[in-house]
Amino acid sequence: MAKYKRILLKLSGESLMGGKNYGIDEKRLIEYATQIKEIRELGVQTGIVIGGGNIFRGLSGASKGFDRVKGDQMGMLATVINSLALSSTLGSINVKTRVLTAVRMEPIGEFYSNLKAIEYMENGEVVIISGGTGNPFFTTDTGSSLRGIEIGADVMLKGTRVDGIYTADPEKDKTATKFDDITYDEIYRRGLKVMDLTATTMCKENNLPIVVFDMDTVGNLKKVIIGEKIGTLVHN
């Protein structure tokens, strides 16, 4: 039995690299698609936002001389490429999808509206929302928070390569300890970088909980959906 009826799943672009240094690892893509199919079969209405950091990140481009607006627009296009790749992979295992874009680019994807997204999810399709917010200077985390709120998601699931939120970066500090759950206020107080401040504040103010979990471990997405205690729950 699924704990959540409708979710917004946020995936990082970097995670799609798998064992590669750049681009998309086909094995990782299949692993993700298979996990998404599992939760669709439980009847969970699923919206997805994917980052573009495996291809291009606007902020890092700006540090190398790119115009920030143009750099962010390139990053938005990178999210569209990743969304099309995931859509194609899901289609290959008989999962119906829709790719919606924050800026008009038919026939690559349909122009996003929350009503369209909700309609498609209610009809059993996985909706992949690309292009960030459609505006520069906003991260994909902020785009995910916005879309999660707009589609009325019960929770935002932030799939990462670590198994939750820690007191410090566990890849750098071996003494870091994991939180099973944490409030938004404590995240502010401790200065933890779960997401950027805008994204975190949007979720807090709209009472959208977040579960941060390790998406790279096959089967974890279903475990979160059925209510197993993995990852870290962020709440008011």
From TrEMBL:
Any Gene Ontology biological process: UDP biosynthetic process
EC number: 2.7.4.22
Compartment list: Cytoplasm
Transmembrane portions of the chain: none
Residue stretches making up the Cyclic nucleotide-binding domain: 99-144
GO molecular-function term, one example from the UniProt record: UMP kinase activity
Catalytic activity: UMP + ATP = UDP + ADP
Pfam families in the record: AA_kinase
NCBIfam families given in the database record: pyrH_bact
Alphabetized PANTHER family for the sequence: URIDYLATE KINASE, URIDYLATE KINASE PUMPKIN, CHLOROPLASTIC
Protein name: Uridylate kinase
Organism from which the protein derives: termite gut metagenome
